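Project channel, design review

CF: Before we commit to the Hymenobacter bucti constructs, I'd like one complete example in the thread so the newer folks can see what an input/output pair looks like. Taking M56 family metallopeptidase.
RD: sounds good, go ahead.
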Amino acid sequence: MEATLLYLLKANVVLALFAAAYYGLLRRLTFFKLNRAFLLLALVFAAVYPALPVPALLPAVALPALPAATLGAASADSGALGPATPRFDWQLLILGIYALGTGALLLRLLGQLLSLAWVRQRTQPLVVLGQPVRRLAGLGGPFSFGRDIYLSDSTLADTQHLPAALRHEQAHVRQHHTFDVLLAQVITALAWPNPAAWLLRRAVLDNLEYLADHAALQTGLDRRAYQYSLLHQQPGGVPAPALAFHFSFLTLKNRITMLNQPASTTGQLGRYLLAAPLVMALALGYSGARAQTVTAVVQPAVFHPNIPDNALYYLDGQPSSKQAIGDLPPSTIFDMDILQDEPANIKRIFGNTTATSAVIITTRANANSPAVLDLIEKGDLGSGYTHTPAQANAVTPKALAYITQHYPDARLSGEVIEVKRKTTGAVKYQVQLIQGKRPFYAFFTPQGEFLKEVRH
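CF: and here is what came back for M56 family metallopeptidase:
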């Protein structure tokens, strides 16, 4: 479920970026074929990109290992120790609403396709000016869908403007514009809450009309006469199906504006070199950073190179294996403790062993089991504490003096965490220090007495 929501979030963000780039940089350019390619790229990339194996496309960035105390804090913030309690699933509700909207729009698309099939059955094949068409009885403007051009009796009777209308529809058919329309409809259904999806759909439809107008003029039609033929067209009578290309007053003004728009200069081609690569780089860069961060946070204990091969692995208070812990779904993990290079502490907790490190995992289902609680108390593990950000003045002058004396080449990062034992309420403070580029942690009592340091 989380993966589905993340997929939808990424896809919708990319649609918004492409819409902003198109309306901000490209909309008024007369490179209609390039605009078509850009808009198709936007729709396809938004659908495909969230599923791309981004870490394989971008080089991984080495991230510092997180200390056990910090990992404990991340899990403790999600709720106190205790058995999982039933709670309302907001993710399921969001996905349910999203799916209902998508289903409704896909059903509407199916209805539009069935409407086109019904209209086609009512037509008769005919050849007009050497072009096979389908004749509709009654009034109405010309329209097309797929390989079919539909002309009403009123359009056929208007011999003066018939050639212009026919050549416009021929351009839609020859250039396979129906593919763009169907793709835009499907993407809009899948991203219906996103205004950017509707804006891109409108942009696709408008640009296809500009392409057809441009192609019609290239056949030798007079520009002024062609514009007059557009003004002369009258919708009505036989309603054109919603998916079909047909005359609309909503697009008439824009079409005439673009017919009179000065041709874009070659120098303006640089906008395409800025728009598409920038959007794709932003999307891939965000995903790469997120994927690397999630990997570092979710599985540092199992795959961190500093964990030796002979490390002990415990799952829910019982001996386990690296393989078993590695196979755990990340969403089931409640707490994680890492003990590294602490042979004396390892022996105190686990008995006679040559291991110097241990990885201790607690799942949500067993967070309050006796074995888990016993191991937390026995080992004084980080998951036995709550971790709360504290003010910098929680570090007493005595603690600062200790830091100055024993770590003269280290600097304070400003991160201070109040660490409180869940069972007794005893408090200590975790102070992050940075030596060179590597962070480490020093622990002090509220009175400023030094307790220990932790390096990873």
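RD: helpful, thanks. The mean pLDDT is 81.
CF: Residues 2-52+88-114+173-236+246-280 form one domain.
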